[in-house]
Design a protein that fits this description.
heterodimer; A: 163 residues; alpha+beta; 6 strands; B: alpha+beta; 4-stranded antiparallel sheet; two-stranded antiparallel sheet; flat
Chain lengths: 163, 422
């Protein structure tokens, strides 16, 4: 045993496999980088899709016949929202009606004048500040009733984010 | 070369490198669609565009116009102005002011659904020759203004991203181009997103049965059809089973003729006590037109003094003269404006009833032919079913009745919006 430790002679090996190993490692690195990229993109897409689906679901629910925002709905008539209601409704009333689990949202309303100019209908009861990122919105055209016989083109926008 | 091929050094490294390069490339090729394929987003976008068409159409129909202005009988009045000693139409602004003062109408707070339905109901569109002619020339400006406004509204709703084609059709009998029609925008491409809905025509169709006015419901229409001779003939023809080819041909010819006459009666010539759809529509149109003109005259009398009213009388009568001239009648000699309006309306109504309705067979020959072809197709289909034993001859009576009834849509008009990306 001692003679083996003391013995300074050795066999010099040729490292011919080192370049191959380097190429293999580069290959693996590229492969994993690609997988990571794909996974990240896919993950981001799934999350956005999920967020969009929730936003769309919330939008459709808020514009359905039973919504507290909707004032008139008949067989073939579209959803008509009352300006008085949408400018005063509280977010708690909306949350009682539609509250997607793990998400929070706010609603904005706009109406268009005859020249196409967009005007916001403000509601002091809605959120004043929104998170800066990871939020998504979904919108649809609606009819907004300002008074009897005065129904204008409008838009409802639902902005949603993760809690 | 031999030396190079014989040299085995470094070959293992090259093999590994090639193998892994191939593996990485294959992985890349497999994973590439995950980077580029956007089918989820695409399907969401398709769904949104479909919803967009529905939303835009329904929002348009629900929204109201504060003041919708048009000029009644604009072309006729302009022609009358041209006949005056001082041609008012040459002084553009003054002429327009006078024109609006005399025949300008304003509809307040009406929804586009209502305006479209009114426009369709008063057009009296008839297929004459190769063209569809809108016989009610008084409301041409109404239609033009409405088309302009709808176009503006849809541009606001859809934005600049989409082009559109909007159409509204009121055909009291399906497939027969009689009634009313509006079409705005260029023809849609094959990949357009289409939304469709129905609106109600504003008139309540009334018929007189034994001197009593009744609302024409599907049940009344059904009972009136059942009483009609052409219907009885049609049903009677189906009591005996044909034995030879000639008898089959005879049955086909007779069925086609009777059903065509039945439909023709409903549409133009009337069924026994029941007035035709054309006459019902004309009654409703002229009733509202008479009310409208009388109200205009009354408004003038109240707002302007006697001297100006004298000038207005002259202008009114000048317009009336032009209309009477076009109808081929002599203007009445009466001092009362109210009476003049009544006579004018009566003359227009008679022109339609006598000129169009009574000569309907000559005027509307192409319409008759297209209706006959449509009915011939249906009769052939039904007779083929009987021949092949799929249907029994007695059961087919109900089908013919349903087919006839289902083709009558007096109070419903179809509205369609096609959108596509530009």
């Amino acid at each position: 045993m001692k003679s083996l430790i003391i013995d300074k002679r050795g066999i010099s090996e040729e490292f011919t496999s080192l370049p191959a190993l380097m190429v293999v490692m580069i290959g693996f690195a590229l492969f994993f980088a690609m997988i990571a990229g794909v996974y990240h993109t896919h993950n981001e897409r799934v999350e956005n899709k999920e967020l969009y689906e929730v936003a769309h679901y919330t939008l459709m629910k808020l514009t359905s016949g039973e919504s507290p925002l909707v004032s008139e709905k008949g067989g073939n008539t579209p959803i008509i929202m009352d300006e008085q209601v949408i400018s005063t409704i509280g977010k708690d009333v909306l949350k009682d009606y539609c509250n997607p689990l793990g998400y929070d949202y706010t609603v904005k309303f706009y109406w268009y004048d005859e020249k196409g100019g967009r005007h916001e209908i403000s509601n002091p009861n809605m959120y004043k500040s929104l998170p800066n990122k990871n939020r998504l919105s979904s919108s649809r055209e609606i009819a907004i009733k300002f008074s009897e016989g005065d129904i204008r083109i409008g838009k409802i926008v639902v902005i949603i984010w993760r809690r | 070369m031999r030396k190079f091929l014989g040299n085995k050094k470094g070959l293992s490294a090259m093999q590994d490198a090639i193998l892994f390069m191939v593996m990485v490339s294959i992985s890349g090729a497999i994973l590439l669609p995950a980077f580029t394929n956007d089918s989820l987003t695409k399907s969401q976008m398709e769904r949104e565009k479909d919803e967009m068409a529905d939303e835009a159409l329904l929002v348009l129909l629900a929204t109201t116009e504060d003041e919708f202005n048009y000029v009644l009988g604009k072309t006729i009045i302009e022609e009358a102005f041209g006949g005056l000693t001082v041609d008012l139409s040459k002084s553009k602004q003054f002429g327009e002011d006078i024109l609006n003062w005399i025949a300008g109408r304003t509809e307040y707070h009406k929804s586009y659904g209502e305006l479209i339905a009114e426009c369709l109901a008063c057009q009296i569109m008839l297929p004459i020759g190769d063209k569809n002619v809108k016989a009610n020339i008084l409301t041409k400006n109404f239609e033009e203004q409405l088309e302009k406004n709808i176009s503006q509204r849809l541009k606001i709703i859809l934005g600049e991203k989409y082009a559109f084609n909007f159409s509204a059709r009121w055909y009291p009998i399906m497939g027969i181009p009689f009634g009313g029609e509006i079409c705005i925008g260029s023809p849609p491409p094959n990949n357009a997103y289409v939304a469709q809905t129905w609106i109600t025509i504003p008139y309540v169709p009334e018929i007189e049965i034994s001197g009593e006015k009744e609302i024409l419901t599907p049940e009344i229409l059904k009972s009136e059809i059942e009483k009609n001779e052409f219907y009885k003939n049609t049903i009677g023809l189906l009591d005996t089973f044909p034995k030879s080819d000639e008898e089959w041909k005879e049955l086909e010819r007779n069925l086609t003729e009777n059903i065509t006459n039945l439909m023709y009666g409903i549409l133009f010539t009337g069924l026994g006590d029941m007035k035709s759809i054309l006459e019902i529509a004309l009654d409703m149109i002229f009733e509202s037109l008479e009310k409208m003109l009388k109200k205009t005259v009354k408004d003038f009398e109240q707002t302007v003094g006697e001297p100006i009213m004298g000038i207005m009388d002259i202008l009114f009568k000048k317009i009336g003269e032009t209309i009477f001239q076009q109808l081929g009648e002599k203007p009445p000699e009466t001092e009362s404006m109210e009476e003049y309006v009544e006579k004018l309306i009566e003359a227009i109504k008679n022109y339609f009833l006598n000129g169009v309705v009574k000569n309907v067979n000559q005027l509307l020959r192409p319409l008759h032919d297209s209706m006959e072809n449509m009915i011939k197709e249906m009769v052939r289909y039904i007779l083929d079913l009987i021949k092949s034993g799929v249907e029994k001859i007695n059961e087919i009576k109900e089908q013919i009745f349903d087919w006839t009834i289902n083709r009558i849509r007096i109070t419903k008009a179809e509205v369609r919006l096609s959108i596509w990306e530009v």
